[in-house]
Design goal:
The complex is a heterodimer of chains A (115) and B (111). Chain A has 115 residues and is an all-beta fold. Chain A has no helices and 11 strands. Chain A has strands spanning 4-7, 10-13, 19-25, 32-38, 45-51, 57-58, 67-73, 76-81, 90-97, 104-106, 110-114. Chain A starts with a strand and ends with a strand. Helices cover 0% and strands 55% of the residues of chain B. Chain B has no helices and 11 strands. The chains are: A mainly beta (115), B mainly beta (111). The A-B interface holds A 1, 4, 6, 32, 34, 42-44, 46, 49, 91, 93, 95, 97-98, 101-109, 111 and B 31-32, 34, 36, 41-46, 49, 51, 88, 90, 92, 94-99, 101-104.
Chain lengths: 115, 111
């Protein structure tokens, strides 16, 4: 399966600041990546679909101006949480579609804590 | 009603037991079915990936899909403490469509 990395694995920031999370495909050229968030003891919630070279597609209820997604190359997608607030504290996970495009491979996740 | 239903558990079994994890779904368009294992504070790991109805075996893991009943299962044989994790089912209609996840079942395998 595909190998996906994320950086950083854990970040603490102050309320009002912005945080960038990187998602890298290490062994595959990923034209499509996905960003999820996960609250404790809950399932994954899809935030947006990131397409290389074009604008991301956001799920209903996700603020595109707050969660900026950039997919500038086939191996890197970034999620920037702008003007972070404590309620943005969560586990953010990216994934890439496999070769058949029907399965997804996930990164290790980034734990964001906003104080 | 959720599109995918999964018992959240927790499910506790003794080491060596056979574990049965299940999901039901309502969308008949789903064609691709996955099981993920997620350890605490880690990203989900793809365990099994199947298309349409039938069985698939990989080591101690067996995935079953019954599309007529809209029911999928994951069996774990000879369960080990290292199998203790949350197991998520996921499915899609294919064509690059997004995944729909179950809520996850927390499994604990005790010595």
């Amino acid at each position: 399966g595909a190998v996906v990395s994320q950086h950083p694995s854990w970040v603490i920031c102050k309320s009002g600041t912005s945080v960038k999370i990187e998602c890298r495909s290490l062994d595959f050229q990923a034209t499509t990546m996905f960003w999820y968030r996960q609250f404790p003891k809950q399932s994954l919630m899809l935030m947006a679909t990131s397409n290389e070279g074009s604008k991301a597609t956001y799920e209903q209820g996700v603020e595109k101006d707050k969660f900026l997604i950039n997919h500038a190359s086939l191996t890197l997608s970034t999620l920037t949480v702008t003007s972070a607030h404590p309620e943005d504290s969560s586990f953010y996970i990216c994934s890439e579609a496999g070769t058949s495009k029907n399965e997804q491979y996930f990164g290790p996740g980034t734990r964001l804590t906003v104080t | 009603q959720k599109e995918v239903e999964q018992d959240p558990g927790p499910l506790s079994v003794p080491e060596g037991a056979i574990v049965s994890l299940n999901c039901t779904y309502s969308n008949s368009a789903f064609q691709y079915f996955m099981w993920y294992r997620q350890y605490s504070r880690k990203g989900p790991e793809l365990l099994m990936y199947t298309y349409s109805s039938g069985n698939k075996e990989d080591g101690r893991f067996t995935a079953q899909v019954d599309k007529s009943s809209k029911y999928i299962s994951l069996f774990i044989r000879d369960s080990q403490p290292s199998d203790s994790a949350t197991y998520l089912c996921a499915m899609s209609a294919g064509g690059g469509n997004k995944l729909t996840f179950g809520t996850g079942t927390q499994l604990k395998v005790e010595l």
